[in-house]
Amino acid sequence: MQAGSGGGGGDAGDTRGRHRIRAELKKLEQEARFLEEELEELEKTDKVSAALQELVVTTESKADPLLPV
Questions:
Q1: In angstroms, what CA-CA distances link 65 with 35, 52, 53, 55, 60?
Q2: What pLDDT score does 1 carry?
Q3: Are 47 and 54 in contact (CB under 8 A)?
Q4: In whole angstroms, what is the distance from residue 25 CA to residue 32 CA?
């Protein structure tokens, strides 16, 4: 016989469950914000990469003045 088991603490368990869900939601929102910031940085990196690639091509097409011909 399990009379009274689980009784008396139902409201506290429900509150803890809601708190746990809110904490998880907050964590997920923080991760989403972090990923959005990371994407913005990557978009900037693409522009820098294109500029650096152009610099490399330009530099490689010119002879090095320190090397003998």
A1: 45, 21, 21, 17, 12
A2: 47
A3: no
A4: 10
Report the SS3 class of residue 13: helix
**The tokens 């294109």 sit on which residue?**
50
Q: Which amino acid is at 63?
A: A
Burial of 31 (0-12, 13-18, 19+ CB in 10 A): exposed
pTM for this structure? 0.50
pLDDT along the chain (69 residues), means of 10: 52 86 97 95 80 86 79
Q: Which two tokens stand for residue 17?
A: 């469950």
The owner of tokens 């990196």 is 45
* Length of the chain (residues): 69
